[in-house]
Amino acid sequence: MRGRTTGAPGAGSSVGRAARVSHLHLEGQMTKANSVVSSSVSAESWEPLVEDGREMGQVHWLLQSENGPVAGLWRVGTEEGAELPYRVTGSDSFHVIEGEAELETPDGEKIELTAGGIYSFPDGSTATWRTRSPFLKFFVIA
């Protein structure tokens, strides 16, 4: 399926709690959009991310489409995120909001992920994800 990542980044199939607005009007100009998606994060808006029967943190969906991009927030602690498979289908771009993690590629390269960093991994990327401290990111998979 295009635009999906398995393992750490936050793929899944539930719709989440996103509000759709049919038109966007900006003062001074009119911009028409098919749908603008917005969301608010609360304790109740997080859901478990389960991949192959294993819980891999929690996700808050902003956008999901069957054959298009997905976006949202993903968080994981050091226990459930101690070591996770990371496999990208499509491309996975994200901004680390808090925490630290390490990706180790099959050839042994180590990529440090730190708060404030912006990263993008292409289709076919694989690595082992190791969460070093409670981790939160905003992701877009396309």
List the helices and strands and how they pair.
Blueprint: E1 4-7, E2 19-21, E3 24-26, E4 29-31, E5 36-38, E6 47-51, E7 54-63, E8 70-76, E9 84-89, E10 92-104, E11 110-114, E12 118-121, E13 126-141
Antiparallel strand pairs: 1-9, 2-5, 3-4, 6-7, 7-8, 8-13, 9-13, 10-11, 10-12, 10-13
Give an account of the 3D structure.
The chain is mainly beta and 142 residues long. The protein has one domain (4-141): Jelly Rolls. It has no helices and 13 strands. The chain has strands at 4-7, 19-21, 24-26, 29-31, 36-38, 47-51, 54-63, 70-76, 84-89, 92-104, 110-114, 118-121, 126-141. The strands form three sheets. Strands 1, 6, 7, 8, 9, 10, 11, 12 and 13 form a nine-stranded antiparallel beta sheet that branches. A two-stranded antiparallel sheet has the order 2-5. Strands 3-4 form a two-stranded antiparallel sheet. A hairpin with a 6-residue loop joins β7 (54-63) and β8. The protein is globular and about 45 Å long.
What would you call the shape? globular
How many E strands? 13
User: Low-confidence spans: pLDDT under 50, at least 5 residues?
Assistant: 1-6, 9-32
Assess the beta-strand content as a share of residues: over 45%
Q: Sketch the major β-sheet.
A: 9 strands, antiparallel
Q: What is the correct CATH architecture? A: Sandwich
User: What is the gyration radius calculated from CA atoms?
Assistant: 16 Å
How many distinct folded domains?
1
**CATH superfamily (homologous) name:** Jelly Rolls
Mean pLDDT across every amino acid position: 81
The number of helical elements comes to: 0
Distance between the termini: 11 Å
Structural class designation: mainly beta
